[in-house]
Amino acid sequence: xxxxxxxFFFFVSIFLSHGVSSSSSSSSSVPSVQTLxxxxxxxxxxKLPPRTLSSSKKFEGSSDLVNLRYHMGPVLSSKxxxxxxxxxxxxxxxxxxxxxxxxxxxxxxxLRAAPSPSVAxxxxxxxxxxxxxxxxxxxxxxxxxxxxxxxxxxxxxxxRLTVQQVIANAVRSAPFPVDHKHGIYLIxxxxxxxxxxxCRAVCGFHYFTFPSLVGYTLPYAWVGNSGKQCPEVCAYxxxxxxxxxxxxxxxxxxxxxxxxxxxxxxxxAHELAELAxxxxxxxxxxxxxPTAPTEIGDLCEGLYGTGGGGGYIGQVMRDREGRTxxxxxxxxxxxxxxxxWSPVLKACAGPNAMN
Length: 355
Description:
Belongs to the EXORDIUM family. By secondary structure, this protein is α/β, with parallel strands linked by helices.
């Protein structure tokens, strides 16, 4: 995942001045949302300070935020996309269920199960991306298998290479098949695990495994739980930098009351969108260097609704308990996920757009 820089906000203002809207149907009226109470959520557009980073390299790649092009590589068009989940470290069952409900909400198209604006409608923007045959990114995603690496097989500090070795361990010990055509491998590290560049430059990343390490080329993503390490960076806007204490707006209330995991979900959404549209880093990205691409999530980093930019995250919703969200999921879940660049609108888009 690419972390935002101040340059981003200038471009967001340009994007929005050209009329950002959803890639799916949207309305300016308050949507029907499954809640424990009958009052509809309220829209608001909070202005918050930007995240702080100790590194000046805010993006993992180019700062070219406009020239998104197709480079002839594959997208994840298989139906369904099989997600192989690796829970690295200690995870509570409610945390696992929350993340899996988000993943399964991508395919929950029944409005009775997940009312608009929904996670499935958010994923529609991702599904607009195609390969050279015209095949779209699949709208169907399943959690194919799970593996719990509770004994920290590669220790409590991982590098980008040992992340791949964790995948190799899962494949070689046979809980996971080799699914290079239909599968993606998602490694989630618990809050006591440190990872190379985590909090300093990235909150997550995606790439593909090296045959020399894993034996196969497999698309994968890693995302870490920042709850105890750097929530003000990777669980933003549910935590704010320390210098804001006692002044200015407060942090937003997470929709599921777990700052670390709620923050992870937006990062997971970001990485899955980019993994689906650029799995082998030779499909959809901006810039000329595939080792440093700017992708469809990077272009809309920090934007969650209409009117975002200049420090504003955009129009989002707040329920009666004060919890902030912009999409609905299965089982009455609510999530706050960033918008994605639409190849049709040539702008950031999300299902909660108000114009």
